[in-house]
Every structure is written in structure tokens, then in C-alpha cells.
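Quick question about two entries, pasted in order.
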Amino acid sequence: MLVYDRLVDKRLLNETKPNAELVYVGKASNAHTLTQDEINNLIAAKARDGKIVTRLKGGDPFVFGRGGEEAEVLVEQGIPFEVVPGITSAVAVPAYAGIPITHRDHTSSFAVITGHEDPLRMYRISPGIKFPQE
């Protein structure tokens, strides 16, 4: 079974076995095929049913890819899994253009920052903070 997202090169789908079950779970801003919880549950349920589940993502699954959330669900349910890291575009694009992301003579660090942080995150990590009432 192949569970794949919006950023996957569709030519890769041609490499699956003819009888493979393909499930598109792509998400774009305000256009989600499934919620993240539904994706997590789908992966876990199919694995519990004895299927070999491949979660194919564009880029690195642990860099803004929700791979950590998917892995947490599998760990919680005692489902063994393997992660094959990808290459995040934050590093790949500059490298492809011949631009080093770090260079001893020019820069010793870089940051990758999301523009899509969960607005409720600070209430979960700091239980003493009260959620504002509307």
C-alpha cells in the first residue's frame, strides 16, 4: 500500500506493483484530502491489518512533513516502522543552484522556519497559560 502526498513526483507512482493500493492524502492550504489524524489512523490501521505501508512524501518527512506525528502514532500503537529520510528543499534548492548553505568563510549556520505553526502549540507546551476566551 502506498500513501502519498501532493509534493510527490507522480512518475514515482508508475514504479509500484500493478496491484498496489494507492491512496492520495495530499494537502494544500485549506484543501485537505484527509486530516492529519485521519492519515495517522489510516497508516496505523492498514499496518495492523498486516499490510506493508509505504508513506511517500516530497522532501524530508521530518522537516515540516508531519512525519514525526505519524511516527508517534505508530510508536504508541507498537507498530514497527522504518524511516528513509529525504532531502529537504531548504538544502536541495540552494545546492542545485551551486549555493552552499554553509561556508566556513561566510556563514556557519542556517535556520529553517515554518509559516504554519499550530496556534494552540504554546497552550500544550505551557499548561499554565490560559487559553483566551472569545
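Here is the second entry:
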Amino acid sequence: MANFADLIIVMTNGGPADSTQTVASYIFAVAFRRLDFGYASAIATALLLLLFLYAIAILLLRRAFLRRQPEDT
């Protein structure tokens, strides 16, 4: 979705009441429209941490699920 942030901004400008606004397009708009690179990088870092925690949770759930299944031998 990060690859489409510039397209969303150019085509819809966030849409009516920011209905097409995504986190990636919001970061892009904050950084390059408001020229607030510090705030944009803080949002991007928070997004990175959230995605990292999500990935860890998925890996742990997958490991627990695989342990419960009987082996097919």
C-alpha cells in the first residue's frame, strides 16, 4: 500500500472526509505537504513497531497451531 500513497493523494486528495486516506498516504502528506518530517518519521516508526508486533504474534500463533496438529506419518 505504501507504493500507492502518492496516487491516492494525487487522484483523490484524501477523498471526501479523508475516506481514502491510508496510513502510508497520511505519512506522505505530512512529510511533503506540511514539511513536517519529524512527525512523519515518528508515525512511520510507530507503524513499523506495530507491524513488527503483529508479525511476532502471527509467528507465535502459527507455532502454537503447528504444535497442536498431529503429525501425518
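Reply: The helical segments are 5-12, 23-32, 37-68. Residues 37-68 form the longest helix (32 residues). Hope that helps.
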